[in-house]
Amino acid sequence: MSQYASENGLKKRRMLIEDNMSIFEETQKERDLELSSILKKSYNYVKNLEICSEDSIRIYNDENTIETEKDFISLYKEYKYLNLEAHLKTLMFTSIERRGKILKKLIKNTKNKKCLDFGSGVGSHTIALLEIGNEVDILDVNGPLLKFTQERIKRRGYKVNVFYNDSPLPQNEYDLVICTDVLEHVYDPIYEFDRIYLSLKKGGKLFLQVSNKIKPSSGHFTRSITLWNKEGIPKLNKKFTKISKDLYIR
Question: What is the domain partition of the chain in residue ranges?
C-alpha cells in the first residue's frame, strides 16, 4: 500500500471517529492504520504482524530470576523478550475483540463519571470511556505501552491524568475502576488491590479480571497468582459486593 493510500485510510478513520464511531466498532484494518501511523511503518508491514504469536506475548524467557519488585517492573519497562510492534497490535486486538459483554455494557452505560484505568495497556478502555464524556485517569508502568497510549489519546483530542505504577493515588475519588489482566503481572497484587479499594468512592464500581493461569513466559508468575488466591480473593469478597461476573461495588 502506498503512503498516500495509507494516509487516505487514516483520514477516513478520523472521519468515523468524528462521527462518534466507538473504538469498539473499529475494524482490524482501522487499528492497523492507526498503528502504522504511530510507528511510522508501512501499512503492509503492520498488516503482516501476527496477532497472539509467541513472539508477540513473550514477556519473560527464564533468562533471569524474577524475584524483586524491580525485577517485575523491568519486564514492562524494557519488553526485551518480545517483538514490541507485534505486542502492540496484539493488545489493540485483544483489548477490544476479547472483552466480554459485561465490560462493554459497563463502559457504554458509564457517562459523566470519574474513572481510573488501572493498568491501562494500550488505552482502548480509556478511549471508550472518554468517547462518551467521562473523565479518565490512567495508571501504568512508565514504559513503551504508556507512551503509546498517550499518543493514541492525544491523536483523538482527549486529555487524561497519568499516574505511574509508583504514584500515590487519590482516595475516595473514582466512580469506576477498570483493572483487567493486571494483578497477575505485579509483584504484590494485595498492595495494588488496596490502592484500588481506597481510590474508589463508597458505592463505586470495580471491574476486575485476574488470571489464574500460571505462565511465566506471559508474565503470570506463581508468586503473584498464589498471593492473589490466598489473600486477595478473601479481601475482595470482604470489601466488595459482587454485582455480576467480574463486576463489584464498594
Answer: 1-48, 99-249
